[in-house]
């Protein structure tokens, strides 16, 4: 445990430069006294680090000192190779860089960890997109990624679902997110989220911007998803389901079934299911055929009844 913590201190000092004992203690979730003892151990081991007193003080490594890539556990080595997803890296224009980095990492590992990493790579393959979705055409992705990295302002022509379907936008791109095989750029002002495959035209301005200091991409994306799902199912439908229909539910509908299910004497189940809209629910419930009965809302029940009558008349005439 201590050896792992000492290596973490070395890597933190190497990547961040000056860092205080309090910051190290917070990062490593130990006491400041433990940090002091660890610093003494590093000194005793001959690591060239020194500390400055005062308000702006802290520990730092001697300029030019670098630790070798040692101390990796088998699990850490496996995870590093598993985390390299070649498809998205190639889309970002980083395919050759990723391959070169993995080659250098593999060469630096001791033989036993190299064998573990090779075993992981041969037995696990990550393929993020779904089966029935074709790959998005994202010709502007490398430019967007470069603008994110260098904090450059973008002018884009964007295609959206509502009128007017094509709009011009000035973006300050804060970050890129890959979700289920689809790329999104989170950009100011706002921030707002845009699908990269819906960017029709793009120009990079000779203008830089500074992202907000408190902006956290992962935290923003988590809140964005929560808000999206909250807005996605704003209505409810009261239904009766046969055992076969109940077994076919998935996602939010399956969770709602578990929470609201009431068994009925005929073997069916009464439940309250979330719906996006009357149009969406109409199509989704029609797919369940005679294995579902919608009790409410009245508008949805009436639409399904009208569709059922039209289908019955069409097939009866044949």
Short description:
With 318 residues, the protein is an alpha+beta fold.
Give the secondary structure arrangement, pairings included.
Blueprint: H1 2-16, H2 21-28, H3 32-44, E1 49-52, E2 58-61, H4 74-82, H5 86-91, H6 95-108, H7 111-123, H8 141-150, E3 152-159, E4 166-179, E5 182-188, E6 192-195, E7 199-208, H9 217-232, E8 235-241, H10 243-248, H11 251-260, E9 262-263, E10 269-275, H12 278-286, E11 292-296, H13 298-317
Antiparallel strand pairs: 1-2, 3-4, 3-7, 4-5, 5-6, 8-10, 8-11, 9-10
Helix pairs in contact: 1-3, 2-3, 4-7, 12-13
What overall form do the CA principal axes indicate? elongated
| Biggest sheet descriptor | 5 strands, antiparallel
Instruction: Give the low-confidence spans.
Output: none
The number of helices is: 13
What helical percentage do the residues reach? 40-55%
Structure overview:
This protein has 318 residues and is α+β, with helices and mostly antiparallel strands. 47% of the residues lie in helices and 23% in strands. Strand 3 (152-159) and strand 4 (166-179) form a beta hairpin. Helix 1 (2-16) packs across helix 3, helix 2 packs across helix 3 and helix 12 packs across helix 13 (298-317). The longest helix is centred in the last third of the chain and has 20 residues, at 298-317.
């Amino acid at each position: 445990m201590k050896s792992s913590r000492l290596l973490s201190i070395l890597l933190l000092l190497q990547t961040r430069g000056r860092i205080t004992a309090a910051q190290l203690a917070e990062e490593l979730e130990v006491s400041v006294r433990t940090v002091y003892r660890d610093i003494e151990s590093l000194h005793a081991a001959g690591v060239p680090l020194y500390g400055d007193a005062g308000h702006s003080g802290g520990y730092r490594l001697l300029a030019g000192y670098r630790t070798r890539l040692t101390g990796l556990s088998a699990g850490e080595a496996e995870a590093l190779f598993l985390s390299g997803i070649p498809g998205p890296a190639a889309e970002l224009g980083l395919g050759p860089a990723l391959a070169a980095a993995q080659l250098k990492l593999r060469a630096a590992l001791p033989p036993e960890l190299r064998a573990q990493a090779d075993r992981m790579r041969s037995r696990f393959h990550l393929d993020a997109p779904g089966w029935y979705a074709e790959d998005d055409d994202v010709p502007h992705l490398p430019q967007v990624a470069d603008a994110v990295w260098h904090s450059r302002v973008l002018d884009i022509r964007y295609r959206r679902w509502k009128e007017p379907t094509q709009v011009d936008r000035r973006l300050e791109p804060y970050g890129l997110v890959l979700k289920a095989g689809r790329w999104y750029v989170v950009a100011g002002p706002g921030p707002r989220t845009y699908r990269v495959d819906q960017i029709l035209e793009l120009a990079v301005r000779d203008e830089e911007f500074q992202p907000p200091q408190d902006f956290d991409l992962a935290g923003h994306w988590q809140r964005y998803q929560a808000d999206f799902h909250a807005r996605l199912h704003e209505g409810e439908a009261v239904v009766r389901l046969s055992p076969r229909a109940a077994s076919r539910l998935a996602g939010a509908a399956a969770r709602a079934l578990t929470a609201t299910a009431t068994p009925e004497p005929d073997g069916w189940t009464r439940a309250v299911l979330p719906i996006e809209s009357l149009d969406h629910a109409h199509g989704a419930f029609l797919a369940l055929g005679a294995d579902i009965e919608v009790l409410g809302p009245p508008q949805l029940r009436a639409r399904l009844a009208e569709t059922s009558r039209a289908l019955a008349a069409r097939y009866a005439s044949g």
